[in-house]
Amino acid sequence: MLEERLKRHMDLLLDRYGILRGVEKQITDAYRILEECFLHDGKLLIAGNGGSAADSEHMAGELMKRFKKPRPVTEELAEKMKELDGVRGERLSKILERGLMTIPLSAQESLMTAYMNDVDSLGVFAQQVLGYGRKGDVFLGISTSGNSQNILYAAVAARALEIRVIGLTGAGGGELAAACDAAIVVPETETYRIQELHVPIYHCLCLMLEERFF
């Protein structure tokens, strides 16, 4: 069960998007994995293709700075910055915001194109999972079909590294659903409709995480 302050975000999601009532447990399971990751100072790695690549960057943006709530730095850090530089440190103490460490793998263009050109296209996200990932982190693969091969290869690498895997996909779940610790399988089959539901789901996850940690 979610705490009441977290559950209100889920209730709002389900009130606005009734079609998602059937995946409430899947969303909750994904949230719990993310909560545990960030509680132990882990990081989230996200990847997708096309529109899902944009979603990976969008979600990272919501987690790395404020979404709705202020996230001021700690007083200890603020004082250290002021001691180092009375002018810039003072300003930084007011404008910096705490984040939840998230890396959108789809945004690493130079690394991605170099690897695809020199080595292989299917392993491009798996290579990044190997480089960035550590035990206790989480890999979130976004694939509307659930069958995007570069996402599946990354999921295999993640599991081998003891990195938990969350999938965000569409009806049926594809191969990805079976490869995940938690899979959110939205009940749509058309790509654009699946993507339209992915956005409010990861917004809800971001809201709950922000509520929990800030």
TrEMBL record:
One of the record's GO molecular function terms: carbohydrate derivative binding
InterPro entries referenced in this protein's UniProt entry, alphabetically: GmhA/DiaA, SIS_dom, SIS_dom_sf, SIS_GmhA/DiaA_subfam
Protein name: SIS domain-containing protein
Alphabetical list of Pfam families matching this protein: SIS_2
Biological processes per GO annotation: carbohydrate derivative metabolic process
Source species, domain of life: Bacteria
Stretches assigned to the SIS domain: 34-214
Source organism (scientific name): Candidatus Eisenbergiella merdavium
SUPFAM superfamilies assigned to the protein according to its UniProt record, in alphabetical order: SIS domain
